[in-house]
Design brief:
9 helices, 16% strand, nine-stranded parallel β-sheet, sialyltransferase cstii, chain A, globular, alpha/beta
Amino acid sequence: MPMFFKDWKSIYEKIKKDIDLSFDKDKLATDLLSELIKNKEIYSMGDLEALFAGKEVVIFGAGSSLENKIITQKNKFFGKILIAADGATSALLSNAILPDIIVTDLDGKITDQINANIGGSIVIIHAHGDNIDELKEHVPNFNGKIIGSTQIDPEPYDNIHNFGGFTDGDRAIYVAESFKASNIYLVGFDFTGKIGKFSFSEKKDKQLKLKKLKWCEKLVESLKKEFKNIQEL
């Protein structure tokens, strides 16, 4: 089952200090998401555990190599649980691949994520202080199976979880590890300083994006050291 917040809290505090996150805004976003999904079809933790148990997982990041890797490695995806980190959803759909799970803080191409959700993708929607407007605008339009997530203590909420993880990519790995995936393969996790087109970063603060990617790299490397079943595909 998902990690305890006490295990994540020290990492969150370091990130909060480095990037100047606001706990109050994170809480406000989490309160909002909890309210918005009250009447949605919530995918249970038991169902998620059953979905992952003993399965191999492929996680797609939105790095610059993603599109080429999808085309060249496509035959290796069959029979595995496929998880898209936010904007990577669009790359998969453009290659006629429907992810089993989407991990998103709603800054990718939302129409693609909504369509994938309608088609059967489980969407893990993440709340943080910088996506309050996106939560208000987009969460009401997700009508398939969803899960709410946060980066603060989830204890007060009965419909929000903290899986660990800061960016959509590393959070997806935390999810797969939490639910005992047998092997985890990473596609499009590039830490070269380049921002891939499926990050949809045109309107984003690029310096902040690069800083977040640095934290993603740190967390991914830490997870690789801790768990020996994570590798690049």
